[in-house]
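Re-run with default settings, no changes from the original entry. Doing this only to confirm the output is reproducible before filing.
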Amino acid sequence: MSEIIPRFLWIIILATLPLGELRVAIPVALGYNYSPVAAFALGVAGNMLPIPFIFLFIRPIFRRLRRLPWLRGPVEWLENRAKGKSAQVSKYRFWGLALFVGVPLPGTGAWSGALIASLLDMRFKHAMASIFIGVIIAGLLVTAIFTGVFAGVDFLKEIFFLE
């Protein structure tokens, strides 16, 4: 990574990206010898940065992108995927969204949670609080896994490819 951009900014940037989020940012921070608390804080801060914008603007963006024939398919695929994952969230609303975001597996996370909350017309402040709680849960789990807190739990090693 470039020395032009400080490492802590790279970690925040990694946490903002939809594919990795905390699952990438926290291990990278730990690899750079940041303390678990610093790795967690940078990951959570970066992960939450884009969420209000996604929640507020994703539907208008999708409406406009759907007008372009070559983007209609991908937009509809993303919406259908989010709607398919929203069953538990729509049933339990606040806590359902927090738990959905809090499971640090591919396809879950703050980006997906913001999209689901927007599609379900959740209130902004409730969605943001729920997603923040979920990000805290996910951040604690990822930090614990990569600092060895769950070292004896074999199924977690398999899920996160630690062996």
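The chain has nine helices and no strands. Residues 7-159 form one domain.
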